[in-house]
Amino acid sequence: MSPARSALLLAGLMASAGLAHFAAPRQFDAIVPGSLPGGPRAWTTASGVVELALAAGLTLPATRRASAHATALFFAGVFPANVKMAYDWRHRSTTARAVAYARLPLQVPLILWARHAGMPDVRRGPVGDHG
């Protein structure tokens, strides 16, 4: 898949996640690490705004590369929330625990996806066409 197409799909994911922070904020509030200053809702709102801004940046060729790098950093930055969720859900049902634990290694392919989305989109013509 081309980096440009990958970036647009990633933008869709980021926009969906960003909107979810406003549509159902309590689920995000619950995974904000308590060691962060301020209240969980402030962090939920801020991360939703950041996700929407990253989504917008991924859609524009002029800002795609910088936004893709920032998206990779964002995925790394929210990892502590996923760790908190896995810890908090350790006594829930097997299905809930599986969901929480699956989020942990999922950060790696998300980071790699963001890095791919930021690569130059080199389009090649037919074989032999180097013009």
Automatic annotation (TrEMBL):
Keywords: Signal. This is DoxX family protein. PANTHER family: DOXX FAMILY MEMBRANE PROTEIN, MEMBRANE PROTEIN-RELATED. Residues 1-22 form the signal peptide. The lineage of its organism: Bacteria, Bacillati, Actinomycetota, Actinomycetes, Kitasatosporales.
